[in-house]
Amino acid sequence: MGRVLSLHVGERPGLPKAGVGELRLVAGYGAVGDRHAGGDPRRAVLVAGVGSYRRALEAGVALPYGALGENLLLDLDPHAWVGRRLEAGGALLELVAVCPVCAALTRLDPRLPRLLYRGRGVYARVLRGGVVRPDDPVEVQALEDDLALAGRTN
């Protein structure tokens, strides 16, 4: 369905987060090496879509990947899948909630909070750990209700 474009961790506060060649995700913990790991498990990982970067670029704001604070950057829009599960690199994530824009983005460009309102990324909980690498396939799992409806015959 999609692909992992890049991976990032931030040991300290601030943006952009550093790019990494692989991301080790641990269930109930988050991304190893990221300062948000071990906190609220529902907000352990930030997943962003490349469309957020394109939207900023169209407005004249060129950003390096990792600038939005994401751990995973995908070639699909995670905002369309809130409430669903996403599988990448053997890890299983639950997309929990849209991440609000924060003041940290204004340090990169004062227009970013308005440009990316409800479009910065999605918080995710790690349900099953795994190692994710760039170019790994990403599969969005169907909801149980979708599966039940698909199995019905009229």
From TrEMBL:
<dbReference type="GO" id="GO:0003824">
    <property type="term" value="F:catalytic activity"/>
</dbReference>
<dbReference type="InterPro" id="IPR005302">
    <property type="entry name" value="MoCF_Sase_C"/>
</dbReference>
<feature type="domain" description="MOSC">
    <location>
        <begin position="18"/>
        <end position="141"/>
    </location>
</feature>
<dbReference type="Pfam" id="PF03473">
    <property type="entry name" value="MOSC"/>
</dbReference>
<dbReference type="InterPro" id="IPR011037">
    <property type="entry name" value="Pyrv_Knase-like_insert_dom_sf"/>
</dbReference>
<dbReference type="GO" id="GO:0030170">
    <property type="term" value="F:pyridoxal phosphate binding"/>
</dbReference>
<dbReference type="GO" id="GO:0030151">
    <property type="term" value="F:molybdenum ion binding"/>
</dbReference>
<protein>
    <submittedName>
        <fullName>Molybdenum cofactor biosysynthesis protein</fullName>
    </submittedName>
</protein>
<dbReference type="InterPro" id="IPR052716">
    <property type="entry name" value="MOSC_domain"/>
</dbReference>
